[in-house]
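Predict structure. Chain length: 29.
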Amino acid sequence: AAERAFHPELVVYNAGTDILDGDPLGRLK
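Prediction complete.
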């Protein structure tokens, strides 16, 4: 998503939450 381009740090964070798939923050991409 576009927000990842503005927040490179979230790329790693989102990748971690995507694996969990149960974390609400992972769905707010």
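Summary: The chain is about 60% helix and 0% strand.
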